[in-house]
């Protein structure tokens, strides 16, 4: 039976080989939502190619250290299959990326070819951010023009999503002999402070997610929040994870669990930045036990959360 609804899981994507790193970076730096510069047309394309050429050698080295590719496509494919199982007959889930294949336009075209008469776009950025959420939905609206479209664009305080995320934190804490001694560091992807000053709700929604998780953890859990992945000279949200970890060590923290908050699947920021770069920073600073909680990836509870969000959005329930 042909599906009547196509659900497109939306994310930036990642390079699927070392050869794909530079063209992937070109796509990233060409995105006007991600890179806010007064450049259009040929000047924007020239800038994107120039920056990508400069950054590609270092980026390829990082990807080589995590297996030569981003794992985000196979992980998102598994999320899509689980979502189909949760939604049941009449639905088919697709993967759509804005910066690499499969592109959002191709996912929509496949959904139409499969007979889908309605599209539901589901952001894999739980916290709304103009740099990412707005980018993927811009592409989706353009691709889906003429087809009924429903959007799930953020869910920072959704109860089932918070249940799923807190389950990964509890699993991480169980790796410590005495979990109460571990400090939980929620590390979110940073954004320029200028976005927040313009009214972007990202920082506020990150705080909502963290508070929701803390309510599901044992009372008195030691924790803090920081931001990673800074790029460029402008001021970003603080504290920076790179600087915050040594600060925690100076305060006497010796056991640390880093939680990827705002990341629903493993990619370069979790596998390299958190598990390799920040581990080295922590060890040098005097942290004795350093762990990283698993990303949600193919957590069944996360798929259930997405299915509930899809059904609510179709019913018009905020």
Cα separation of the termini = 30 Å
SSE order = EHHHEHEHEHEHHEHEHEH
Structural class: alpha/beta
Shape: globular
Please compute the radius of gyration using only Cα atoms: 20 Å
Strand content: 5-15%
Average predicted local confidence, pLDDT: 95
Q: Percent range for helical residues?
A: 40-55%
**How many helical elements?**
11
- Low-pLDDT regions: none
* Spatial sequence of strands, sheet with the most strands: 2-1-3-4
Number of beta-strand segments: 8
Taking the sheet with the most strands, its summary is: 4 strands, parallel
Q: Assembly type of the shown chains?
A: single chain
How would you sum up this structure, described in words?
- The chain is an alpha/beta fold.
- It is 47% helix and 15% strand.
- It has helices spanning 21-30, 41-65, 72-87, 104-113, 133-143, 159-173, 193-197, 202-214, 241-250, 268-285, 300-314, and strands at residues 5-11, 91-97, 118-123, 149-152, 183-189, 223-228, 255-260, 289-292.
- Strands 2-1-3-4 form a four-stranded parallel β-sheet, with helices on both faces.
- Strand 7, helix 10 and strand 8 (289-292) form a beta-alpha-beta unit.
- Helix 1 (21-30) packs across helix 2 (41-65), helix 6 (159-173) crosses helix 8 and helix 9 runs parallel beside helix 10 (268-285).
- The chain is globular.
- The model has no long low-confidence stretch (mean pLDDT 95).
């Amino acid at each position: 039976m042909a599906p009547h609804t196509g659900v497109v899981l939306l994310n930036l994507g990642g390079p699927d080989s070392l050869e794909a790193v530079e063209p992937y970076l070109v796509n990233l730096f060409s995105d006007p939502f991600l890179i806010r510069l007064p450049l259009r047309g040929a000047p924007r394309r020239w800038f994107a190619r120039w920056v990508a050429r400069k950054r590609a050698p270092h980026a390829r080295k990082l990807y080589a250290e995590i297996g030569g590719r981003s794992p985000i496509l196979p992980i998102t494919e598994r999320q899509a299959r689980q979502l189909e199982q949760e939604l049941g007959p009449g639905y088919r889930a697709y993967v759509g990326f804005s910066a690499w294949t499969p592109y959002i336009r191709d996912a929509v075209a496949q959904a139409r070819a499969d007979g889908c008469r309605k599209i539901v776009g589901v952001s894999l950025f739980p916290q709304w951010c103009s740099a990412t959420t707005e980018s993927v939905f811009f592409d989706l609206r353009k691709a889906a023009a003429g087809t009924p479209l429903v959007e799930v664009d953020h869910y920072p305080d959704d109860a089932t999503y918070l249940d799923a995320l807190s389950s990964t934190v509890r699993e991480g804490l169980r790796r410590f002999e005495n979990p109460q001694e571990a400090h939980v560091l929620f590390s979110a992807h940073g954004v320029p402070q200028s976005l927040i000053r313009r009214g972007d709700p990202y920082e506020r929604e990150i705080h909502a997610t963290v508070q929701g998780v803390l309510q599901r953890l044992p009372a008195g859990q030691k924790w803090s929040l920081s931001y990673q992945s800074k790029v460029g000279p402008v001021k970003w949200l603080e504290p920076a994870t790179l600087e915050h970890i040594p600060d925690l060590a100076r305060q006497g923290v010796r056991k640390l669990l880093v939680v990827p908050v705002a990341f629903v699947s493993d990619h370069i920021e979790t596998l390299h930045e958190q598990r390799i770069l920040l581990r080295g920073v922590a060890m040098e600073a005097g942290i004795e036990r350093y762990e990283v909680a698993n990303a949600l990836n193919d957590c069944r509870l996360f798929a259930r959360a997405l299915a509930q969000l899809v059904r609510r959005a179709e019913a018009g329930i905020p």
